[in-house]
Amino acid sequence: MHDPQSPSPVRPGQELPPAPPGLKRAAFGLLLLFVFGMFAMIAGPFLLDGWREHQILENGEDAVATIIVMRDTKDRANENPIVAMTVEVQPDKGKAYRAQIVTPISIVDLQNYRVGNKVRVRFDPADRSKVALVGPIIDPATGALLGIPESAPAPAPAPANPAPDSEGQ
Q1: What is the pLDDT at residue 157?
Q2: 52 and 66 in one domain?
Q3: Spatial separation of the C-alpha atoms in residues 26 and 165, rounded to whole Å
Q4: What is the pLDDT of residues 51-72, one digit of tens each?
Q5: How many CB atoms lie within 10 A of CB 136?
Q6: Which long-range contacts (CB under 8 A, 24 or more apart) does 14-21 make?
Q7: Would residue 102 count as lying in a domain?
Q8: Would you say 61 and 75 are in contact if contact means Cβ atoms under 8 Å apart?
Q9: pLDDT at residue 88 above 90?
Q10: What is the domain count for the chain?
Q11: Can you give the pLDDT at residue 10?
């Protein structure tokens, strides 16, 4: 019944034979592949968005845009609010068009971004919906922001998700 040539079954308390070195390397390789794969899935979208914005800032065409809508997304990057802006982009060549920009803005610089203000942007001429914010446009003679009179108060960014009306419930 029992073939003397076949290895005997393992009994409780008995040590297992050592695993072949190739199997250990394969298991370690699979573990590394899993760890790096999870990192790529989690961090990849964030890194890719940053890379795309960098490419637009480096290679895009300059334009002036007017802030139409600005709202707080309720997300933060290094404690700075990430805001979503709808802007009307006026390229040097072509018609004006609207685009979305989602970017972090420091609390200190937030006062320079108001609805109606002009901002410098860069856009991808191959895909005009890809727009990156460069900065506010400031009149060098007066130091004032272009687009809104100095006396106008800064409106607060619109909330990301307005609270439901308590009376209608």
Answers
A1: 55
A2: no
A3: 59
A4: 688 888 898 999 999 999 999 9
A5: 19
A6: none
A7: yes
A8: no
A9: yes
A10: 2
A11: 66
Q: What residues does 102 pair with on adjacent strands?
A: 84
Enter the tokens of residue 159. Answer: 């909330």
168: in domain: no
Tokens of 167: 């009376």
Q: For residues 14 and 19, give the distance between their C-alpha atoms in angstroms, rounded to a whole number.
A: 15
Residue numbers of the domain that contains 128: 60-136
The CA distance from 115 to 93, in Å, is 24
Angle at Cα 69 formed by Cα 129 and Cα 131, nearest 5°?
A: 20
List C-alpha distances in Å: 47 to 83, 126, 143, 147, 150.
18, 22, 35, 33, 38
| Choice between 169 and 29, residue whose per-residue pLDDT is larger | 29
Residues 117 and 81 in one domain: yes
Residues 71 and 51 in one domain: no
Report residue 132 CA to chain centroid gap.
11
